[in-house]
Amino acid sequence: METPLGRTETPPDTKTHPDTTRTHMETTRSPLEAIETHPDPNLTPKEPMECPHGTTRPPPTRWGICSAGKISHDFLVALRTLPAEEHIAVAVAARELTRAQQYAKLHGVERAYGSYEELARDPQVDVVYVGTVNPQHLPATLLFLRARKAVLVEKPLGVTACEANKMAAAAREAGVFLMEGFWTRFFPAWNRLKALVDGGSLGDCRVLQGALAFPLSAVERLREPSLAGGALLDLGGYGLQMASALLGRGRPPLRLRAEGCLHPSGKGGVLWGLEWGGGVSLG
After folding, report:
1. For 264, what's the count of Cα atoms within 13 Å in the CB-facing half-sphere?
2. Closest-CA residue to 124 (of 45, 48, 58, 64)
């Protein structure tokens, strides 16, 4: 889930992982997908908290952080704006233990792991935030879902629709919560806008046009095809999710138009439009 600090660099602990050279993760089986998880017998489940006047309240939701990069730092800064009796980060995992330990020390997180598998086995973790680079969202998310952890995945949920479908199917099979971290969906201004559109106060909304841009040349993960870089997956989702909610009302579009160019480096540009019928479109 992006925060006002934004995402400005590749998470340091994900730059050298061999799987970052894969763009379509569904075509290559990741070692993470085959992991069997076994709860650590030394850790105990959480208990209800005592409240004044002899009542009890639900214990705080216990978060695990997958990846110790900048976006995971920003996420935890945002999480700590919420009451500690409601949400608490209890563990962090990175592919290098030293990076996880540094993150844990900086943020006061109790446990640090040198692998994602250890985090998946931690029974004191209720939900995991996945803040890895885009190509690693699929294998990491499947790992935690199969361990019966709820998962919040940094956007984009997957690099392809096939990846997103795999994650959704795994969440249904495990009976756990899965969500893409589109933080803008929770802005008060967004809720007000959607209420106005749904209530008809703005009339019959048929077309949405918008622009969102900033320089990408200095951000490695946004320039590299092997890291699923490019403007569409990083910025394009904002316009797409807004159009889907405001114009499509959650319905899939009837038509999708796209045109673009691809440079020798693998980078390029794309223009696209969506139509829901009845003259309603984005483009």
Report:
1. 0
2. 45
Instruction: Enter the DSSP assignment of 72.
Output: H
- Residues 6+ away with beta carbon under 8 Å from 30: 19, 138, 139
Model confidence at 138, in pLDDT bands (50, 70, 90)? very high
The active-site residue, picked from 15, 70, 155, 267, is: 155
- Mean pLDDT in residue range 185-189: 90
For 207, left (φ over 0), alpha (ψ -120 to 50), or beta? beta
Annotated catalytic residue 166: no
DSSP, collapsed to helix, strand or coil, labels residue 57 as: strand
- pTM over 0.70, yes/no: yes
Question: Half-sphere exposure (CA, 13 Å, Cβ side) for 70?
Answer: 13
> Quick check: 8 pLDDT over 60?
no
* Cα-Cα-Cα-Cα dihedral sign, residues 166, 170, 173, 177: negative
Q: What is the pLDDT of residue 114?
A: 97
